[in-house]
Design a protein that fits this description.
Elements (H helix, E strand, L loop, with lengths): L1 H19 L5 E9 L6 H11 L9 E7 L2 E4 L5 E3 L15 E5 L3 E8 L1
Parallel strand pairs: 1-2
Antiparallel strand pairs: 1-6, 3-4, 3-5
Helix pairs in contact: 1-2
Bound molecules: zinc ion.
């Protein structure tokens, strides 16, 4: 499953970060998930709970921040947040847009002790 391999690499980078910072445990993990990233938040949560036991994250809270798609329209030069999966500018309906956010998933914040 896609989410399982994501969580594996997420936990790997948590371990690395903890090592660098001389931490003995991680208390909070915050990730950002773009709505276009293809990652299912619920599955990610389940995968995290499944794999965290054996790791430095076993007591960590897992916070998921859902990031909507943010675009910049090249025609009217307006930045917008898309409500629907329609790839055009809400203001002028142009499809000449650049996607600025909401396409990927990454680790935003770690709290450790
Ligand atoms: Zn526009």
């Amino acid at each position: 499953m896609h989410e399982y391999s994501i969580v594996q690499s997420l936990l790997d980078s948590c371990e690395e970060n903890a090592k660098v910072n001389d931490a003995t445990k991680i208390t909070k993990v915050v990730v950002k998930i773009g709505v276009m990233s293809g990652v299912e938040p619920e599955l990610l949560q389940t995968a995290f709970d499944t794999f965290k036991e054996e790791t430095i994250c076993h007591e960590a809270k897992f916070i998921l921040n859902i990031q909507k798609v943010i675009i910049n329209c090249s025609d009217c030069n307006t930045k917008s947040e898309l409500e629907k999966n329609e790839y055009c500018c809400p203001k002028c309906q142009s499809t000449n847009i650049e996607i600025l956010d909401g396409e990927e998933m990454f680790l935003m914040q770690l709290e450790m002790e």
